[in-house]
Design goal:
homodimer; alpha/beta; 16 helices
């Protein structure tokens, strides 16, 4: 059976909907599994395509190559989801800040944003135009996936985007962005409001293009105090979620919210409107589940460094995560953060195999 | 009145014991305040002494200069404690790993430790000999303080020392040290056991030399899973605490334990034998207090970036921290992490003044 999407391309019916079901806390036969950064440097085939493309951003901006790398991990491993190959910082790039990647230093902006005037001058943009390459990648991937597994779209959270936009890149102390927050809270709110509107437009465009679930990466929410997390990060993610398209292809589009280092805030995150919460490895899933009282699904939470272990220790670590979540619906297996570039692919394979072998008992 | 210490030097009676009382949850007239890294780069007078000394380690190893910089913040601000000027990594340096500081990259070791053989070869050492410069600094500072405020001694936690010793310096992913933990847990336990014994000897030598409270800095415990935190970090800190000298100068020597990023583990930390727990700014003190059920005192927890604000915003932020802890004994005001080098000294002064002005109401 074929469905029409956006009146443009026909897509096959979804053959593996474990991820979408688990994100909505519906029954599944086994725990679905995918990995953050599953299309990435730990795969030699990724490194080959990346070399062919040029820079990291060149790869993001070439829909055929972005599609190729998105599908690479699915060729190797029986994963239950694909995630769009892109970067969390495409929105500020579209706003004119000039995203680039310097080797060893991560993402940087040519024109960081430092004051109220720059906040006021931030342009709104049409994601179908300025981020058309992302939507083209989504459409290309959906076609290539042909219903095999669902495709996850994503963006950085407003606070996380703001940290990079103000600091101009990665930072240890968050001096500039927090300085702005402490000295000029009204300016910061105007800034984050603009970012929230843009991210909502962006994610809706991804959904219209074919994303079947979306994830908000709040990579740096965890550096805030509780009060500031609620006020400067969570509130804006809540605003985004309330603006998102809720259905596509006749199915609910689940929203996953992930604040790294945010274990202590899971109760308020569970009230954000998100269907599922990403959880890092600093909290037991049993405790996380108690904190959210089964109001949302949980995605996580193996320590990415567990993959430096042996096949045996990896299997034990997977068993511990599954046992910690326990029986019942609402668990998506994942790492607690992106897979590290030095991980041998076979170790990722051992993890995925262990989830397949060990999880069915929790769904009987 | 004069007391004799270690049969060597005479020391004046303590004139300001707010810190020691608060750490033991005894009544005080106002909340005591000190700052992690209060003797440091944000002070121009520190930078001048540092330049005179040469490298950071040269400064640590010159007792008179270490004493000078320890006292500098007390000359500027009405602080309630002095903290020994030293580094958390002196123990591995004494074990022969060759500690040095490369500008911009933080601490590094010339000879990192990478395997079971190196763990077995780790020497035990006599802190009075190999770390005699630290004990000399403690004695010199006590004499110079002349009872003005208590002196805090400290060390890195075994897990934190291990991360630097294995990685050879700072790290983002903790790949090597966690790889050892996942692949060779028995080796890691042998390693941490040796470090725990050495740290206990080291802290006891500091207490014998004159430290009136001691603090364990578990800077990197927060990168572990809950299970691994308990097994590879907290258990060894518990071992250390059980070996510490409990009294000096006829007073209890309080022990402070600080795991950065460990807010979710406060309940088990409260059972470690520590008298007080350091708390970073990612949790409300009201919630932290509930988690520890007044079994221990709490030290913290202003976001160090709050000091990038204005005098008014700093005062408000201090007020919020004090109000969050609320009435009653057992609060030591501090930042949630070390003061950043770029902070204007007058902003630190505004914080300290605000604690003095606003805290008495919580102690009536």
């Amino acid at each position: 059976m074929f469905l029409f999407l956006s009146g443009e391309i026909s897509v096959s019916e979804l053959q593996n909907d474990r991820l979408l079901r688990a994100l909505l806390r519906q029954p599944v036969d086994r725990t679905p599994v995918w990995m953050m950064r599953q299309a990435g440097r730990y795969l030699p085939e990724y490194r080959a395509t990346r070399e062919q493309a040029g820079s990291f951003m060149d790869l993001c901006k070439a829909p055929d190559l972005a599609c190729e790398v998105t599908l690479q991990p699915l060729e190797r491993f029986p994963l239950d989801a694909a995630i769009l190959f892109s970067d969390i910082l495409t929105v500020p790039d579209a706003m004119g800040l000039g995203l680039y990647f310097s080797s060893g230093e991560g993402p940087r902006f040519e024109r960081p944003l430092r004051d109220a005037k720059a906040v006021r001058a931030l342009p709104l943009f049409d994601p179908e135009i300025e981020l058309g390459y992302v939507m083209d990648a989504v459409r290309t991937i959906r076609k290539a996936l042909n219903g095999r597994v669902p495709l996850i779209g994503f963006s950085g959270s407003p606070w996380t985007l703001a940290t990079y936009m103000v600091e101009g890149g990665s930072t240890k102390n968050f001096a500039l962005v927090k300085g702005m927050m402490y000295r000029e809270p009204a300016v910061m709110h105007e800034f984050l409001g603009k970012l929230a509107d843009s991210v909502a437009l962006y994610l809706n465009a991804q959904i219209a293009a074919g994303a079947q679930a979306v994830m908000l990466f709040d990579t740096w929410g965890g550096v805030l105090s509780t009060q500031h997390y609620n006020e400067f990060s969570l509130d804006y993610m809540r605003q985004i979620i309330s603006q998102l398209t809720t259905e596509a292809d006749g199915r609910k589009v689940p929203v996953i919210l992930f604040t790294k280092g945010g274990a202590q805030w899971l109760p308020q995150m569970a009230d954000s409107g998100a269907d599922a919460l990403g959880v890092d490895w600093t909290i037991e899933l049993s405790q996380a589940r108690e904190l959210v009282q089964d109001r949302v699904a949980l995605q996580g939470n193996l320590d990415p460094c567990a993959l430096y272990g042996t096949p045996e220790s990896i299997r034990e670590a997977v068993a511990a995560v599954l046992a910690s979540y326990g029986k019942g619906n609402g668990h998506v297996f994942n790492l607690g953060h992106g897979i590290h570039p030095e991980i041998p692919p076979e170790n990722a394979g051992a993890m995925i195999q262990a989830v397949q072998d060990l999880s069915p008992q929790y769904h009987r």
